Amino acid sequence: MLEIENLTRRYMTRTAVDNVSLTLEAGRTYALLGPNGSGKTTLMKMIAGLTRPTSGTIRFEGEPVGVKTKSRIAYMPTENYFYSYMTIADAGKYYADFFRDFQPEKFREMLARMELRPKDKIRQLSSGMSAKVRLALTLSRDAKLMMFDEPLNGVDILTRAQVVDEIVRNREAGRTMLISTHLVDELDPHIDSAIYMKNGVIALAGSREELSRQGTLTELYLKIYGAEGHENA
Fold first, then answer.
1. What is the C-alpha separation between 220 and 200, in angstroms, rounded?
2. Which among 129, 146, 170, 198 could disulfide-bond with 203, CB atoms 3.0 to 4.6 Å apart, if both were Cys?
3. Do residues 92 and 63 touch, judged by C-beta distance below 8 A?
4. Which residues of the chain have pLDDT under 50?
5. Are 119 and 88 spatial neighbours (Cβ–Cβ below 8 Å)?
6. End-to-end CA gap in the chain
């Protein structure tokens, strides 16, 4: 489904992603793991077509990532990207205008489940509620690849559970999920494969079955990142 070959992204003197090659299969849920600054966000933004690689290639369903593939890839960023005047309902209308695959009824149902009021202004929401709005917008698209950048970051335990439940609920047949996080335990029961990034490279990757021979996801995380990973977790 997604093929990445020798992908590199440099910013001045810093290399954020360094010669990464990776294949994602359709219908699987992937955890993209690593502490802050490991290259996860840069990798996802290149897949989403928001950041251009310095070198290397990304192909989605056989064609280079670009304008055409954006209609089949949904991406939830960590930062808020809404205008200050926007209510939650306004954000839904914006997505409906921008993405043909956006499903307004599904969006309304998700808001109700997560106890979000459409008339509330997004800039006045807590970080957890704002994260739930971004999640609902992303999951209301009918995309084949869905990417979530640190959806559990900065939210309380109850909100984390809601976020994970909604992601799991939307793992439909043939849909691929890529979830970046440094909070391993919450996602552990739900993933098919894990990718560990460190300093812009892939330190370890494999299916749950393959990785389980070396330890649990948390044990591998601590082994790869040591004190650095523990501080961010």
1. 18
2. 198
3. no
4. 230-233
5. yes
6. 30
- Write out pLDDT tens, residues 148-197: 999 988 888 888 889 999 999 898 877 999 999 888 888 888 999 999 99
Phi-psi region of 185 (alpha: psi -120 to 50; beta: other; left: phi over 0): alpha
* Tokens coding 226: 């040591």
The CA angle 224-212-156, to the nearest 5 degrees, is 65
The answer to whether the beta carbons of residues 20 and 31 sit under 8 Å apart is no
- The pLDDT, as a whole number, for residue 77 is 93
What's the pLDDT score for residue 228? 58
3 Cβ contact list (under 8 Å, min separation 6):
22, 23, 57, 58, 59
Q: What are phi and psi of 79, to 5 degrees?
A: -90, 155
Q: What is the pLDDT of residue 183?
A: 84
Distance in angstroms (rounded) separating the CA atoms of residues 107 and 90: 12
With vertex at residue 141, the alpha carbon angle to CA 116 and CA 150, rounded to the nearest 5 degrees, is 65
Angle at 136 between CA 130 and CA 142, to 5 degrees: 150
Instruction: Return the SS3 of 205.
Output: strand
Going from the C-alpha of 90 to that of each of 29, 95, 145, the distances in angstroms are 30, 9, 25
DSSP, res 190: G
Per-residue confidence (pLDDT) for residue 155, from 0 to 100 = 84
Closest of 57, 26, 10 to residue 174, by C-alpha:
26
- CA dist., res. 155 & res. 152, Å (int): 6
- Tell me the one-letter amino acid at 137: L
Would you say the pTM of this structure is higher than 0.85? yes
